[in-house]
Amino acid sequence: MEYVYAALLLHKLKQDINEDNVKSVIKSTGVEPDDVRIKSLVAALSEVNIEDALKAAPIAAAAAAPAGAAAGTAPAAAPKEEEKKDEKKEEEALEGLSSLFG
After folding, report:
1. Distance CA 45, CA 6 (A)
2. Domain that holds residue 13
3. What are the pLDDT digits (tens) for 19-56?
4. Which of 11, 29, 42, 55 has the fewest CB atoms within 10 Å distance of its CB?
5. CATH code of 53's domain
6. Are the CB atoms for 69 and 76 separated by under 8 Å?
7. What's the pTM?
């Protein structure tokens, strides 16, 4: 899990997610990095748009809903076609993320 967190941290800081950067983040925590895991993670993430995956993640959607409600804004009702498209995008994003843990 720490490898995924390292990749998310690098993404948040707008740094390249490559083997050297992930290894540096892991080393900075005092843990000896596993080169095989790092290579696997970097290869898997090379085909994933992390920003889209984060937006489509159920946790992000759940966190955004209370924030909007707290601000006094009600979520707009989406048409059924748009809901189907969103569900398909979510499924695709989850498939990409599941390949990391497969």
Report:
1. 12
2. 2-101
3. 999 999 999 999 999 999 999 999 999 888 888 888 88
4. 29
5. 1.10.10.1410
6. no
7. 0.56
